[in-house]
């Protein structure tokens, strides 16, 4: 029998899948209807009433068949499973599923339909989210997730500028706060021991591939209504969201095994996705908008996503997977508040080279009011492919969890350019030369330390040993040419400058300079210790801090852990400590060379590393942004004038 042949769509049309009734085990029969999509009036009756499905395509192996008007069409096993679970025995169901409703062999139609994808999911009566088939651990996993958040939600959650109470947090998430009787029951509930295999059923829920796919973000966020399920078991998505946060009073995140740390990273992604949807829902009512305005300054994530900027969507969801690299871009356009309909620079195109897509989007972003943010995230050290400008951020290759810990320049305290405005000029494509105003601070001067191999944060104690070795080598590099009591250019001792520079002078809202100083001192003890037995080495450091500083073991452990967290963030970003030609302590992007130059760009909160171009005389290439201790608050601006430079 000949395969099904699609009939062409008119402009503004979509196909609706009519899933015909059938008994379990019978073949899947469907019809396809053309309908005009009325995205501007989704609540009014029209001929495109349907439910949209959000699912994972899965591997194209052991393909199944669906029959459209009697003609076969191949579909993946995952879609076959989903349709069979959705099929009724008595009545037809109107659905939209991309694999069937878009002609996958027609790249022009595919581009046109992908452009409409945001409206397709906004217009659907509801979005059916399929997390996959049920397993023997599903029920136990969902029960454990519910017990975890209900047990701890009364504690509230920490944010960078304060705490949210349990009641406020529950309202944010759209969950019902447990009653006093329920709270007592859950507080006394027995949960598995921390870091034990008993948490695996809960982790397996978040390890499902749906949570890792980039396309599901807009499908879920833009939906008018969401029905989530595993197999045929309904799942409350707000309960999954509640369990993905860090709670106060030392509870932290779900205490999974160290080998499951990567799953926590996907839970972080899921929390961002869920937050996007909750903000969208709350923003649709006057009460919700008032609530957001009243508490937004307290919470970084909620503030970040109250307006969906394309630059943030592209950056923070780089951890998600995409079969086609360019879909990392196309999947975000429909959600971005700052992207106009039919924006020429952001056309969906499955034919042109991927380098063209990357450059087009970068040109769009760098000229926006947040252009410096994309610029600061770009550079040769993060460039996996040739043929794109060094100043363009390439999001087609996953940065993994690094994207989630990269602090937005909008929230950092750095202010190297002194509050000036980012001004750029762009040459026409394909030249793509960026003109900025900047001044040269100095040369890098000395080669930064080399990494000690890839750091695997999931390797437990070995990761801390790696950090100790890294810290020891970095500490010696910064101070090897100094003497006790020597002053840094800022007037502080070189010892104090090194303490701050090794963690890019980070500090959380609950920490004091003294706490960070104690944590740093404990790490210096560890760096010179030859004891490879980590627990005993840490215990020795805690006892010594207790005696020397007159603090409790709990306080000593807090100081040690907080400095560890800041150190981990620096190492995780693959920053390399270095001493510049004039003796400044720096953290440089990988790939920086002694002949490279440190520049301050007007409007950029952090200094950048530039290398002189070997291809174009008088031009530069961007290596990446950096940290230089002592010039991060505009100290280098005195008497300096910006000049025009060209970056390609």
Strand pairing plus helix content: what structural class? alpha+beta
Strand order, largest beta sheet: 5-4-2-1-6-3-7-10-11
User: What summary fits the major beta sheet?
Assistant: 9 strands, mixed
The radius of gyration computed from the alpha-carbon positions, rounded to a whole number of angstroms, is 27 Å
Low-confidence stretches: none
* Percent of residues in β-strands: 5-15%
Helix content: 25-40%
Query: What's the N-to-C terminus distance?
Result: 55 Å
What is the number of helical segments per DSSP (H or I, 4+ residues)? 23
Number of strands: 20
Mean pLDDT, nearest integer? 87
Net shape: globular
Number of domains: 4
Short description:
It contains 23 helices and 20 strands. By secondary structure, the chain is an alpha+beta fold.
Features of the shown structure:
alpha+beta; 648 residues; 36% helix; nine-stranded mixed sheet; Heterokaryon incompatibility domain-containing protein; single chain; globular; HET
Verbal overview:
The chain folds into 4 domains: 13-130, no CATH class; 138-208 and 236-301, no CATH class; 310-446 and 589-647, no CATH class; 462-477 and 499-571, no CATH class. A hairpin with a 6-residue loop joins strand 16 (597-601) and strand 17 (608-612). With 648 residues, the protein is an alpha+beta fold. Helix 5 crosses helix 8 (200-206). The chain starts with 12 loop residues before the first strand and ends with a strand. The protein has 23 helices and 20 strands. The mean pLDDT is 87. The protein has a 9-stranded mixed sheet. Strands 12, 13, 16, 17, 18 and 20 form a 6-stranded antiparallel sheet that branches. The chain has a 3-stranded antiparallel sheet with strand order 14-15-19.
């Amino acid at each position: 029998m000949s395969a099904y042949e699609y009939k062409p769509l008119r402009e503004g049309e979509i196909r609706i899948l009519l899933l015909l009734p059938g008994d379990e085990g019978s073949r899947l029969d469907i019809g396809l209807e053309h309908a005009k999509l009325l995205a501007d009036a989704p609540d009014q009756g029209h001929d495109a009433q349907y439910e949209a499905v959000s699912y994972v395509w899965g591997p194209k192996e052991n393909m199944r068949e669906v029959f459209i008007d009697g003609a076969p069409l191949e579909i993946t096993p995952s879609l076959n499973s989903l349709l069979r679970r959705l099929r009724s025995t008595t009545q037809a169901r109107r659905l939209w599923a991309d694999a069937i409703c878009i002609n996958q062999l027609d790249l022009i139609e595919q581009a046109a339909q992908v452009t409409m994808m945001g409206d397709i999911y906004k217009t659907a009566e509801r979005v059916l989210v399929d997390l996959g088939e049920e397993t023997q651990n599903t029920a136990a996993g969902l029960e454990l997730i519910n017990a975890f958040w209900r047990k701890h939600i009364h504690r509230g959650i920490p944010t960078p500028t304060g705490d949210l109470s349990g009641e406020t947090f529950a309202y944010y998430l759209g969950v019902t706060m447990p009653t006093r009787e329920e709270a007592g029951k859950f507080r006394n509930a027995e949960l598995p021991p921390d870091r034990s295999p008993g948490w695996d059923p809960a982790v397996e829920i978040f390890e499902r591939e749906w949570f890792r796919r980039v396309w599901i973000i807009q499908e879920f966020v833009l939906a008018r209504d969401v029905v989530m399920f595993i197999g045929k078991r309904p799942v409350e998505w707000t309960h999954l969201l509640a369990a993905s946060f860090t709670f106060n009073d030392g509870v932290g995140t779900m205490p999974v095994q160290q080998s499951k740390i990567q799953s926590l990273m996907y839970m972080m992604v899921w929390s961002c996705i869920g937050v996007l949807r909750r903000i969208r829902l709350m923003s649709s009512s006057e009460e919700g908008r008032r609530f957001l305005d009243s508490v937004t300054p307290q919470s970084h994530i909620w503030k970040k996503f109250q307006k969906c900027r394309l630059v943030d969507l592209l950056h923070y969801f780089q951890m998600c997977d995409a079969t086609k690299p360019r879909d990392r871009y196309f999947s975000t356009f429909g959600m971005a508040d700052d992207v106009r309909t039919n924006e020429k620079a952001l056309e969906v195109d499955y034919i042109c080279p991927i380098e063209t897509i990357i450059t087009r989007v970068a040109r769009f972003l760098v000229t926006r009011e947040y252009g410096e943010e994309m610029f600061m995230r770009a550079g040769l050290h993060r460039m996996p492919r040739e043929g794109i400008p060094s100043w363009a951020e390439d999001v087609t290759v996953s940065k993994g969890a690094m994207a989630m810990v990269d602090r937005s320049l909008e929230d950092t305290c750095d202010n190297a350019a002194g509050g000036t405005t980012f001004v750029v000029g762009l040459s026409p494509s394909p030249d793509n030369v960026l003109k900025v105003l900047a001044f040269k601070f100095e040369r890098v001067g000395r080669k930064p330390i080399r990494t000690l191999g890839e750091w695997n944060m999931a390797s437990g104690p070995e990761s801390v040993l790696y950090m100790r070795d890294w810290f020891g080598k970095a500490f010696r590099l910064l101070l090897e040419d100094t003497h006790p009591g020597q002053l840094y250019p800022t007037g502080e001792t070189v010892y104090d400058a090194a303490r701050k520079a090794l963690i890019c002078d980070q500090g959380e809202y609950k920490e004091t300079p003294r706490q960070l100083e104690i944590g740093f001192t404990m790490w210096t003890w560890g760096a010179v210790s030859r004891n490879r037995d980590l627990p005993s080495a840490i215990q020795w450091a805690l006892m010594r801090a207790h005696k020397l500083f007159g603090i409790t073991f709990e306080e000593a452990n807090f100081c040690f852990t907080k400095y560890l967290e800041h150190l981990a963030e620096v190492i995780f970003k693959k920053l390399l400590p270095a001493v510049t030609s004039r003796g400044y302590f720096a953290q440089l992007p990988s790939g920086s060379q002694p002949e490279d130059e440190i520049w301050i760009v007007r409007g950029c909160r952090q200094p950048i590393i530039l290398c002189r171009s070997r291809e174009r005389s008088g031009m530069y290439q961007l290596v990446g942004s950096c940290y230089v201790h002592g010039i991060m608050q505009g100290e280098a601006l005195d008497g300096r004038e910006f000049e025009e430079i060209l970056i390609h």
